[in-house]
UniProtKB/TrEMBL annotation:
Pfam families xrefs: Hydrolase (PF00702)
Binding residues for Mg(2+): D8, D10, E168, D169
Family: Belongs to the HAD-like hydrolase superfamily. CbbY/CbbZ/Gph/YieH family.
Keyword ATP-binding listed: no
Keywords: Carbohydrate metabolism, Isomerase, Magnesium, Metal-binding, Phosphoprotein
EC code(s) of this entry: 5.4.2.6
Active-site residues annotated for this sequence: D8 (nucleophile), D10 (proton donor/acceptor)
Organism: Marinilabilia rubra
Site residues by UniProt (Important for catalytic activity and assists the phosphoryl transfer reaction to Asp8 by balancing charge and orienting the reacting groups): S113, K144
A GO molecular function held by the record: beta-phosphoglucomutase activity
Protein name per the record: Beta-phosphoglucomutase
Signal peptide stretch: none
Domain of life: Bacteria
Cofactors demanded by this protein: Mg(2+)
Length: 214
């Protein structure tokens, strides 16, 4: 019996990808080279330092570790300046309705996100109070497809993984959920997320009935 839902943040509840792109582009501009949306495709689902290495490769730059750490910090400052301007209007279609439906049916809700800015984003979206537990990048040491973030979410809810459903938009996230012994709903394309128990284009396509059939 399903008793809880654990949500990834970016691409499921909100889309911050454009803010990451703008922040990386600003950094590239400062370094004196162009960074395009096509280039940005290579950064999706990649850690901040690996993303920086790709960016520097595109710019033909080889920098020492100390300089790279400084640049990664600067990129995050750019990004944070953007997300501090976010509003509840940026919640993806159907997310709020589904979250309310879960609460009305006494299901618990947790966040399982690798982002270290997750709490800031939830606060800006006025969503923090809806979550019974938040596991973000400050509380985990292993990246997806390791199931750590979701297992910690289940633990924080005092539930076994088998009673939790994960909502994910990335292949590595789906693999993490399944590795943790949880059901998973993929948000996006069946071609990419085919391992999930169910794939829908967005939370606007989810309801309690579909959840109960998993």
């Amino acid at each position: 019996m399903i008793k809880a839902c654990i949500f990834d943040l970016d691409g499921v509840i909100v889309d911050t990808a454009r803010y990451h792109f703008i922040a990386w582009k600003a950094l590239a501009d400062e370094l004196g080279f162009d960074f395009t949306e096509k280039d940005n495709e290579r950064l999706k689902g990649v850690s901040r330092m690996t993303s920086l290495d790709i960016l520097l490769e595109i710019g033909g730059l080889d920098l020492p570790k100390e300089k790279k750490e400084e640049l990664a910090k600067r990129k995050n400052e750019h990004y944070r300046s953007f997300i501090l301007e976010m509003t509840p209007d940026e919640i993806l279609p159907g997310a709020m309705k589904f979250i309310k439906e879960l609460k009305d049916n006494d299901l618990k809700i947790a966040l399982g996100s690798a982002s270290k800015n997750a709490m800031t984003i939830l606060d800006r979206l006025e969503l923090t109070s809806w979550f019974d537990a938040v596991i973000d990048g400050t509380k985990v040491s292993n990246a997806k497809p390791d199931p750590e973030v979701f297992l910690k979410g289940a633990e924080a809810l005092n539930l076994p993984p088998s009673e939790c459903v994960v909502f994910e938009d990335a292949e590595a996230g789906v693999e993490a959920a399944l590795a943790g012994g949880m059901k998973c709903v993929g948000i996006g394309s069946p071609e990419v997320l085919g391992k999930a128990n169910l794939v829908v284009p967005g939370l606007h396509e989810m309801d309690i009935e579909k959840l109960s059939r998993l």
